[in-house]
Design brief:
The complex is a heterodimer of chains A (462) and B (83).
Chain A (H helix, E strand, L loop, with lengths): L13 E5 L3 E4 H12 L7 E6 L3 H12 L3 E6 L4 H11 L3 E5 L11 E7 L2 E6 L11 E6 L9 E5 H15 L16 H12 L4 E3 L7 H9 L4 E4 L1 H9 L12 E4 L6 H14 L2 E7 L6 E5 L13 E2 L4 E5 L2 E5 L6 E3 L14 E10 L5 E6 L3 E4 L2 E4 H11 L5 E6 L2 E7 L6 H12 L6 E6 L12 H5 L2
Parallel strand pairs in A: 1-10, 3-4, 3-5, 4-8, 11-12, 12-13, 24-25
Antiparallel strand pairs in A: 1-2, 5-7, 6-7, 8-9, 9-18, 13-14, 14-15, 16-17, 17-19, 19-20, 21-22, 23-24
Helix pairs in contact in A: 1-2, 4-5
Chain B lengths: L2 H13 L19 H15 L5 H6 L3 H10 L10
Helix pairs in contact in B: 1-2
Classes of the chains: A alpha/beta (462), B mainly alpha (83).
Amino acid sequence: MYFFEEQVLDKDRIYLRSEKEGSVTYGELDCFCKEMGTHMEKRTLVFLLCQNTAGSVLGYIACLRNRVVPLLLDCKMDYNMLKDLICHYEPDYVFAPKGHQGYSPDERTQLVYEAYGYNLYDISKETETKLNEDLALLLTTSGSTGSPKLVRQSYENIQSNAESIVEYLELNEKERPISTLPMNYTYGLSIINSHTLCGATILLTEHTMFEHEFWEYFKAEEATSFGGVPFTYEMLKRIQFFHMDLPSLRTMTQAGGKLSRALQKEFALYAIKAGVKFVIMYGQTEATARMSWLPPECVLEKAGSIGISIPGGAFSIVDGELVYEGKNVTLGYAKCKEDLAKKDERHGVLYTGDLARKDEDGFYYITGRKKRFLKILGSRVNLDEIEQILKGRYKDVCFACTGVDDRLDIFVEKGAGLCSEEIVDFISKKIKMNDGVLQVRQIDSIPLNHSGKIHYRELEEM
Amino acid sequence: MTNLEKYNKVFQVILKKEGEELKELRYRGVPEWDSMGHMNLVGELEEKFDIMLDTPDMLAFSSYEKGKEILKKYGVEIEKEDA
């Protein structure tokens, strides 16, 4: 049985606790799914504009249960990007928060259902949506550039990954995870999926760790776990998390990029002292979410390692590249609406694009990346794509992008006479990243190697 | 440079906001003032005014106006704007 289907359990159990909307029981979830199902045709496409509220999570589960395929998007996404995506994929429905600024219905759309602060719009269109029968869910690849490239996830993908996560984290119905990541981000979604599977109570807040309200809610609701990308852990250190009194906390997980050695050690030592599990994990949207975990008892001894493959998965190294096999390897990508009908293109094998090594105890370490991309705040940013975007905006100017995680360096030749601030402003808007992660460096000339290609290593050393 | 000018300059450099935009500025109210923006903003204010904010104050720093009250606790008096 799939995690999103009606479960045989006490219907009065609390499924969601939302700071805005109070409690939703598992029984109410069932009612909601039935009702929403009467307003949607099966095997259609929905754009779900996500936030960490009850309406958003309920809408997502209702889509899965009714065999409607949702594309999960950030509800704060740029309106023009949203419009472009709607033109590109022609969804049958849009499920958006009431009063959403970005989505306003026109003559083709009709409001058909409202509940939990969300509106369901039916968009009439002439063509029929053709979806592959295994397709359950669509997620964006980077979340920020508005690229139409999506990851196609199947029902089996999300179910097997949720089961695996429940197994290695030893989750049960007593868990109370608190939302710290967007639900349209694969890591945030995996927390919802795995905790729905084990019948837990999910705590939803729109507040961030930089607000009092978050910590008050955390304490009042006795949250037991949270997940974070490397930046989350930097924030936690900055707000002196180590001195907070959080008796309900049992587990902290970390994914979405490599945590610095120093931070990893500090949190590991804190976890030991506080009796909390600190679990470092590794994954990609292309593998549904999770591929590996570092058992918490090894976190100091195996510092810097991504750990071992999750239950049901297996790693191998092919020509230096990390390759993963498992039921959570997704079907493939979609770049246009016709691709939604495509079959499984990966057959359970994923070439991760990460370079890795394995130690004598079977633990894996990421040593580099095959392709040129960075992780910024846990999201992937392709450096070649950024160069293309820049070249599209500034014709005949040569750019080169390098960087490390959470910092993107843009090199431009002084002779081009461009204003650094303008470039930062343009790119930060384009990729929806805070401009604090961007740095423009004006140099005399961009170094080229003997074959005329940009010499990135030399730039990295500048 | 007055403290108000210094304060406003930090907002301009980190969040790219100035003039009339400042008064209503709130954390998470504009895309620039997200968690990373907050971390950078507080870091820059600490550097420019040579102070170190406690955790409760960092969490209470929810708006442009609120920030002025907080800095006062650290002996940084931000001048009232001319009416």
